[in-house]
Amino acid sequence: MPFQLEVAISEKDFVNRGYAQVIVDSTHKNLDRPFYYLIPEEMRATVAPGMEVYVPFQRRLLRGWIMAIEETLPLDLYEKSLLKIEALNEQYKLENDLLSLVPYLSGKLLCSQADILRSLAPVGVQRKAQTWIVLPEKLSKEELYAWQGLDPDSAALLARLNRAPGQKIKKKTLLAQQEEGPVRALQRLLKDGLVLEKNVLADRKESKRIEKPSTEIETSEGKILTEEQQAALRRIIEKIEERIFAVFLLHGVTGSGKTEVYIEAAKKVLARKQKVLYLVPEISLTPQTGRRLGERFGRSNVVVLHSALPEAERRQHWQRIASGEIDIVIGARSAVFAPLPNLGLVIVDEEHEPSYRQEKDPKYHGRDVAIQRAIYHQATVLLGSATPSLESYEKAKRGIYELIELKKRAFGQSMPPVHIIDMRQELAEGHRGMLSRPLRQAIEERLQRQEQVILYLNRRGFSTFVLCRDCGYTVQCSRCSISMVYHRTGEKLHCHYCQQKEVVPTFCPQCKSKSIRFFGTGTQKIEAELRELYPSVPVLRIDRDVAQQKGMEEVLEQFSRGEAPILIGTQMIAKGLDFPQVTLVGVLAADASLYVSEFRASERTFQLLSQVAGRAGRAQKAGEVILQSYCPEHYCLQAVKEHDYLSFYYRELEIRNKLVYPPYSQLAQILFTGLKDEEVLQVAQYWTDLLKKISAREKIQLDVWGPAPASIHRVEEKFRWTVTARQDHRHSAEPLRHLLRLVQTTYREGQKGKAAVAVSLSIDGTD
């Protein structure tokens, strides 16, 4: 039942009745429901569902969104008890397809509707509410008499108001004086009705439209498709022409030409006057994809949308997209909310990538939201990957998705041979460097042939930790329970979680010894080693540090132009990049990600290594891949070596089945964070007890583990505990969600007066 607001309004507002159901922008979970507001007469012709409004709420002016407009009220509400909408933001409106996501995602993700609406709203349009003190237009005789008998402070305040432009002053300006006399005078004047409070919205300065130099070029013709590509395209176009919702899983080896299939499908959709949404897993891939589609369809028809763009540019792109001016939107995860009308095709490239899942609330998965949008529009979905997620491939096997396979590379090249170097043997033979002898030899051969090399190491910085060799002290971040990383650039220690920086200690803070040593290897250290080995050879590096300082696109352009034969990088270089001169890929620590505390560790490692390996030999020249490992016999690495997705898929499913992990169960990860460790633990334990109690009552079989400290127990001065719940239901997470909703409700009802501990839920399953 919507909450009833007990505030009276004037009878003059009852003309042309209309009532709006509004979700207010509040983080308080108990306010996650619609509130009824009266629509003022002057707004009746303009107001519509999806519009942003500003409404009085608990003596404040809050932003909100209209979810529905009603001509009648529920029986338990009375018109005189309603407040009216104070202001309307006419700069944007969320259309029905985006509004339909609100109840769907809030129910699926167990978050508030306001959380979803904030994600849907374009940036830079929110206006700040301000409270002004104003003089009434007319005063009664009694009020005039009261004015004549005012105390000096009140009289001075009224005189100041009378002289002010527009006879109004911001309330915070008056309160900022912090003098008792004027503050009490204001309270008395408000009580007597001699001055009024008026909530208004601050005017937002309109930014000028960003006019970029015209780069329009003639559109280019497509490439000749292989027989496999043509067969795939025929199946896709059949569904596009029927305009029936369908999901295709395009499983194609690296270099098989999946992008060309996307482009040809997009061409068909655009010919039908429909729009295309094209998602990529990383912002760094948007320039390359944007250029490629711009060359085919005209750059004025294509826009790139992502969170790293300047706010004004994002807002203008949003408005152009909503107006129907743009045909193709390319972007990373957040672009899934682009307001494209008449959507005909949704492309999710590298659908397996974990970067499509948002880590902060609301924890949506871009792929799943994209599919939901396609359902609304009856559009076609293309999920593309050389290494599909187990969940997607399993759905394809069950017939929920249609499976299309591209088994050959587009130019007929063979897949590059993969060699695994046993680093244990290298160490036993006295070779302690990060570059094994076979890898060094392969690099030198490429340098002689004037070919290019990519070296992959997913650790940035120079040394991964700093240790005292006398007492064993490790330098940790003062705000996070994690070792600080030494960066040679700037000679500082960096925390990769809170971004704090510290000076490198000259002696041990604990025992005062000078035996401070640097251990571990990052991309900066590999760069230094290569420059020492090959002093005349230019070396480029790409990681987050370089991307922030120099710009990733600039470095990639340098490498593409052949200005350097060696590129070192983190996972930023692992996907979607195409360099014809690269004939060698070296992975320096292939098993580094195999043993993290995540049930998908093997799957993530297989996908990442397969993607990195796919950068080699993509054109006419043959490629080679070298993996360095301390566990070369691991089934994951062996599957990478053989380019054998299916052997990995079946082996991993066998293990998941034995351990009852997704896709054979549904997992809920519950994260608790707060400033006091013991209070966070107390709340986590309370949830654990509730889960066990309510699951028994509801007769839902549930395994509960925890509470346990998070893998990184403290981040940005907040302590973190986790609880994991597993429900043995293969194809639906709804029983688990039902249980978690009951626990949420019980917890909220008993939460008043308790410590402020944030609770974040994430369900990891197959639905």
From TrEMBL:
Q: Which GO terms describe its biological process?
A: DNA recombination; DNA replication initiation; DNA replication, synthesis of primer; double-strand break repair
Cofactor(s) required for function per UniProt: Zn(2+)
- Gene Ontology MF terms in the entry: 3'-5' DNA helicase activity; ATP binding; ATP hydrolysis activity; DNA binding; zinc ion binding
Q: Which residues form a coiled coil?
A: none
Q: What is its EC number?
A: 5.6.2.4
Q: Where is the signal peptide?
A: none
The answer to whether UniProt assigns keyword Ribonucleoprotein to this entry is no
Keywords from the named record:
ATP-binding, DNA replication, DNA-binding, Helicase, Hydrolase, Isomerase, Metal-binding, Nucleotide-binding, Primosome, Zinc
Q: Which reaction does it catalyse?
A: ATP + H2O = ADP + phosphate + H(+); Couples ATP hydrolysis with the unwinding of duplex DNA by translocating in the 3'-5' direction
User: Per UniProt, where does Zn(2+) 1 bind?
Assistant: C468, C471, C508, C511
**InterPro entries, per database record:** DEAD/DEAH_box_helicase_dom, Helicase_ATP-bd, Helicase_C-like, P-loop_NTPase, PriA, PriA_3primeBD, PriA_3primeBD_sf, PriA_C
Uppermost EC category: isomerase
Task: Give all residue intervals belonging to the Helicase ATP-binding domain.
Answer: 239-406
Positions contributing to Zn(2+) 2 binding: C477, C480, C495, C498
Is Phosphoprotein one of the keywords UniProt gives this record?
A: no
What this protein is reported to do is described as: Initiates the restart of stalled replication forks, which reloads the replicative helicase on sites other than the origin of replication. Recognizes and binds to abandoned replication forks and remodels them to uncover a helicase loading site. Promotes assembly of the primosome at these replication forks.
What does the similarity note say?
Belongs to the helicase family. PriA subfamily.
Under the subunit heading, UniProt states:
Component of the replication restart primosome.
- For this entry, the protein name equals Replication restart protein PriA
Q: Which organism is it from?
A: Heliorestis convoluta
